[in-house]
Design goal:
Layout (H helix, E strand, L loop, with lengths): L6 E5 L4 H17 L2 E7 L3 E5 L2 E5 L1 H25 L5 E6 L3 H12 L3 E6 L5 H6 L2 H8 L3 E6 L9 E6 L5 H15 L2 E8 L4 H17 L4 E7 L3 H11 L4 E5 L14 H8 L4 E4 L25
Parallel strand pairs: 1-2, 1-6, 2-5, 6-7, 8-9, 8-11, 9-10, 11-12
Antiparallel strand pairs: 3-4, 7-12
Helix pairs in contact: 6-7, 8-9
């Protein structure tokens, strides 16, 4: 079976939630025989005058780089002491966060970006930007959001909603690969409103057939609702799921800046890891957003 996860980048900012994300990344890497990149980004402090951008605080930047290098090396050594055969490397970038991540994704052929998530996004953070949300929406790779309080690192029950048709076959194949690596069970959830009921039902039945043909244990259920994110989160609690596999597709994402879109709803209402699949076909390799005006840099240690 194709290995969907060969290289994992974990965004490290030396907080508890990023340490937990690193633990999750290690556990996934061990099961999938993948390598891990421990990644941290430092952005220069700048001012803008008549001559353009001017870097300030060069000594501070150099000091932060040395602190970051020391902290990453310590983390790498700690992981290596427990898992000596695990392939590990560290990467430090000096750029805007998303551009630095995407540069590394391209250079290292990253399959999955893992980052910690604190969950709730209140009104203020909607304006200032959330690190995990920014990475989710802008990274040129599939993304796994790991809630800060998540302490289960095996995926015994894998919830796979069928709600959109794009890249569904890839999502099913990925889910089967994860289930086999974890000796887990897929919980297939068809979820639709009245508008696209027939298309989603057909796709749901095709997904069931595909899973059965590949001899993967699964159970299945179909729900009718317009509140898809809420119902998926509710079902994940009732089903005692360990991870949710989602297509990176949100039919309501640009409806309104102030509306709670699918992504924000499911992040806010779910306390298990969320795997957002981005197929190679849909990723725009030309993204170079400098994120002007929003400081989303991972803070330096110390």
């Amino acid at each position: 079976m194709q290995n969907f996860i060969s290289t994992i980048l974990v965004a490290v900012d030396f907080t508890e939630k990023s340490r937990n994300a690193a633990v999750m990344a290690v556990n996934i890497a061990l099961r999938h025989k993948a390598r891990i990149i421990l990644f941290h980004n430092i952005t220069n402090n700048t001012i803008i005058d008549r001559t353009g951008k001017q870097v300030i605080g060069a000594e501070t930047i150099d000091e932060n780089y040395k602190k970051t290098e020391f902290a990453l090396n310590e983390l790498e050594a700690s992981i290596k002491s427990q898992y000596p055969d695990l392939k590990l490397q560290t990467v430090i970038k000096n750029d805007s966060l998303v551009h630095a991540i995407n540069e590394t994704v391209h250079e290292e052929t990253v399959d999955l970006v893992v980052c910690g998530s604190s969950g709730q996004q209140n009104f203020t953070r909607l304006f200032l930007g959330s690190l995990s949300y920014e990475i989710l929406t802008e990274a040129n790779s599939s993304v796994l959001l790991v809630p800060e309080k998540c302490r289960k690192y095996a995926f015994d029950k894998i919830l796979v909603p069928v709600r959109v048709l794009e890249d569904l076959a890839d999502k099913i194949d990925l889910s089967i690969a994860i289930a086999k690596k974890n000796k887990g069970v897929i919980s297939l959830l068809g979820i639709s409103n009245e508008d696209d009921l027939l298309k989603i039902k057909d796709a749901y039945q095709a997904a069931r057939t595909s899973i059965a043909i590949k001899s993967q244990d699964y159970d299945s259920q179909f729900l009718m609702t317009r509140n898809k994110a809420t119902q998926i989160s509710k079902f994940s609690h009732e089903d005692d799921a360990d991870i949710i596999i989602l297509n990176y597709k949100d039919e309501d994402s640009w409806k309104s800046f102030f509306l709670e879109n699918f992504f924000k709803q499911i992040i806010n209402n779910t306390d298990i890891p969320l795997f957002f699949l981005k197929s190679k076909r849909m990723i725009n390799k030309e993204k170079t957003d400098d994120n002007m005006g929003i400081d989303i840099t991972l803070p330096s240690p110390g």
